[in-house]
Amino acid sequence: MNWEVVIGLEIHAQLSTQSKLFSGAATSFGAEPNTNTTLVDLGMPGALPVFNKEALRMAVMFGSAVNAEIGMTSVFARKNYFYPDLPKGYQTSQMDHPIVGKGFLDITLDDGTVKRVGITRAHLEEDAGKSLHEDFHGMTGIDLNRSSTPLLEIVSEPDMRSAKEAVAYVKMIHSIVTYLGICDGNMAEGSMRCDINISLRPKGQEEFGTRTEIKNVNSFRFIERAIYTEIERQADILEDGGKIVQETRLYDPDKDETRSMRSKEDANDYRYFPCPDLLPIELTQEYVDDIAANLPELPMQKAERFMSEYKLSEYDAGVLSATRAMADYFEEVAKAAGNAKLAANWVMGELSKYLNTEGKEITESNVSAEQLGGLLVRIGDNTINGNTAKSVLQAMWEGQGSADEIIEAKGLKQVTDTGAIEAMIQGVIEANAAQVEQFRASDEDKQKKMIGFFMGQVMKASQGKANPGVVTPILNKLLKG
Amino acid sequence: MSLEKQDVLKIAHLARLALDDNDAEQYQHSLTSVLDLVEQMQSVDTDGVEPLSHPLEAKQRLREDVVTEENRREAFLANAPQTEAGLFLVPKVID
User: Does the keyword Mitochondrion apply (chain B) (predicted)?
Assistant: First the structure.
């Protein structure tokens, strides 16, 4: 049978606040266990939460960016369950009155079509601690540093119909939160985690099938693979006439399979109720309007500006605006080089090769935007040609200094002195008398093809330093005799 | 509305309360009478009345996003029956 997959996503984005959602402890990643904790995070009796102003502002920024209704009154609720890394016995979250209501965003698919995905809601909640199951004499270690770290849980409508669409959506959310500066987007450190709801239905059927939820997937690649794997599993069951059990599953990237988490029969009986320790949050229209009016430029807007301001192609603008770090880097190079097209080519071409080879992000580049800009200036003013620039970039990548230092130290400065170039060409003509004779006997079309050989010889004689723009006319003149 | 004994046991389990059979029966009665009261209250017409999420007519005060707390791990760990490598130790749990 022909199945259609239906996917909805819940994304947890950790907000980049300095302190926690409800306490004055630091949120820094990688701190020694339990050093970023307070009485509130430990759930000590009598300790009361006080809500972080910045987390609120960040949530409203997100809501504005995805065209959502903002909850002018929002309420914290307790989600009750027992687990050792949740010392209070409940997670403070939001249920009936989330801070961000219905919204949407547009994603661009590989074939260039634009698809609108609905956002159901986004709510503020605190993270739980971390359980370590390594060997502590058969016991479990609890680290509560993450406890009360602010999260924004972004819930989508079940609008996606393929793994590719789901990945495009997650990438767009990633791009938006990093552009807004409200989340560092570091999936490896768990700053963005994704729960995937998947069901299948026969093509053409209106009604949704039974869904499963894959918890805590933390990379774009794993999201795609987990979805393919789960689609296959569900299709196999349905083809055999079986039924899908609604349950929570985990994706194991090593085995490339999803497996059922031990099902707790009352796992979803969270008995939500409004948190008596926290009052409702009331927003004014002025506060919301002010945030909306001061949103930074978003990915789509930036791509459009790159096309109009720098005359970049749609493709180039898309690649260079994909992340805020990439966009900022490119713009700095363009400014330093004074040539946006050249900057775009080098950032997407040569520089990306080095980054990809070493698996580095643009923020980890060995060559700063200013340094790369400095190199491109030297192409622009004809100090070096493009080929020489590639070897200079390699030296820069290896930490040998700035473009000017390397050009100076290696004597790579392009030769533009016509007298010197004429002498070099004369040398080449004398050393290749047979070829010159052949050239002179040929018709114009043939000559055009043969000129490359002489050009190569001249470049070789100049160790790549001759300015091709100066060489070409002189070479033509002398060859024709 | 009346609760079954099974409901009482389930609620107790969710709250990790240990009830014996006698307790369960007693709570079955007292909880049922609470629910009866709620049922009686439901006959009041509440159309157009906003649900109350907090009895105080006040709104949430906000805190500046500043780290104000120091590391007091040693004091916190001193309260726990078992610790190791800066961690609280609890009976083994596996998801």
Answer: no
